[in-house]
Amino acid sequence: MHALKQKRPKRSIRFQLLLVVNAVLAIFVVLFLIFSYQRDLAGRLEDKRIALEEEAAALLPSILQMQHQGRDKIQEYIETICGQMQEIHAPVHHIAVTFQHDRFRLLSERKATPELLQVIQQAAKSPGRPASFGASEIVVGTYTQSGATVYVSETLDNLYGSVFREVLNNLSGFIVLSFITGIVINLALTTIVTRPLHHLVQTVQEIGQGQLGTQSETFHCAELNYLTHEINAMSASLAAAEKIRKRQMAKARKIQENLLPEEINIPGLNVASLFQPADEVGGDYYDVLPLSDGAWLFCIADITGHGISAAMSAAVLKTLLIQATEHTCSPAEILDFINRRFTVISPVGEFVSMQLLRIVPQTHLLEYASAGHDPACFLSPTGETADSETTGLLLGIDEDATWDNITLHLTKGHRLLMVTDGVSETHNPQGEMFGRKRLIALLKECQQLTIEQTTLQLQERLSNFRSTNPQQDDVTVLLIEMTDD
Fold it and tell me: What is the pLDDT along the chain (485 residues), one digit of tens a residue?
């Protein structure tokens, strides 16, 4: 398998613009320097050729006057002149003389080869182009008069070096110019783009963190000003929508609170409760209802998920529970009644765990049925604990599912703890769950406290255990204690 490629870090606009500008400028500079080099070199070559022609024109009258003195005299003269030229100018000079009607040819150096004369004559035929001789190039100026021609050649090594040094000087200037341009562009981008964008990013981050309605200041740049206007409009729109949502959620929370029992006052029983939704509204539900046979029904349920959808399902369960208690007092039959109707109307994939306890306070008789809910914990007056059993499937899975009742006889001082899984599945920042062991240990630890104090202890313990972690699931607790008749 190919190794996963690491994502390249994103470059800032400032960096990318500077890169593009300097790359274009560098290409322009290179092209300009090449053109400048070629142009300057051609100009310098032409100037050099003209200068050499002028030297040849200055030499020719003297050579014509010396023609009758013989070849040696002319040879000595041109060698003297050539030596003086090389003392004044560093480049290597050669002077050649030819006569139209004579095979008389002279070079400034007696040891110079005939090939050099041939190269000089060929170079004279192409005045605009240097000729190569050995490792060097030469340029030639000529002058003809009275059948005699003087050729003055000069090597171009120094000329090339001089032109190249001028190009380097120009390049240094361009580098300084590019550096200054980069600084100016960087300052301009920082002022015009980077700082406004940074401010806009901070505004968007504040909006993303929930500070809806946050507004950004406007800028002089039309594009950024347009972007600012749209962000401000979005922020104001989100703030207005959030205001409406909060009003609606407050109403939904009020409706859900109305689904819960207000005051629970049952002779022979003490009841304490805790209800903490993870969102404004939750998917947990509990209820305490009197039955027609004089017993009391305790219900605790947990709908999958939380939020509006789960809260609506909780309202449906409340209605179905009240309808069921009008027809039967058996926990198993109530679960059957609710399941048949809830399976038909519930969304696909939404299930409910529910536990029902029927308690006769006068006789301490307990009858319960559980549809896949977390076990209830029974704490005896002597400190012994036991868990309830699951007697059937979750609600909403199988319309024809059935449940069994389990009957227990309790005594005065017995406590019954009913919870949803949001209690045991509370996580600390290290990812550890609160768990049932801590829950049962706390129940035993608080046996000498009132059930109200025990509920408060549980709430505090969960909050401390959660620490900086947000609450991920609804937390619901029902704690019941058997008392005197």
Answer: 444 455 666 676 667 777 777 777 778 777 877 887 778 878 878 887 888 888 888 888 888 888 777 777 877 787 787 777 766 665 677 788 887 766 556 666 655 667 777 777 777 777 767 777 777 788 888 888 887 888 888 777 777 777 777 777 777 777 777 778 777 877 777 777 777 878 888 888 888 888 888 888 887 778 778 888 888 888 888 888 888 888 877 777 777 777 788 888 899 999 999 998 887 777 888 999 999 999 999 999 998 876 777 788 888 898 999 999 999 999 999 999 999 999 988 877 789 999 999 999 999 999 999 999 999 999 999 999 999 999 999 999 999 999 999 999 999 999 999 999 999 999 999 999 999 999 999 999 999 999 999 999 999 999 999 998 888 888 999 999 999 75
Buried b (16+ CB within 10 A) or exposed e, 356-382: bbbbbbeebebbbbbbbbbbbbbbeee
Taking the CB of residue 118, how many other CB atoms lie within 10 A of it?
Answer: 12
Coil, helix or strand at residue 452: helix
pTM here is 0.59
Helix axes 222-259, 308-325, angle to 10 degrees: 10
Of 108, 60, 116, which is closest to residue 81 (Cα–Cα)? 108
Architecture of domain 13-161: 2-Layer Sandwich (3.30)
Torsion of CA 200, 204, 206, 208, to 10 degrees: -170
How do the domains of the chain map onto residue ranges? Answer: 13-161, 212-259, 262-482
Fold of the domain built from segment(s) 262-482: Phosphatase 2c; domain 1 (3.60.40)
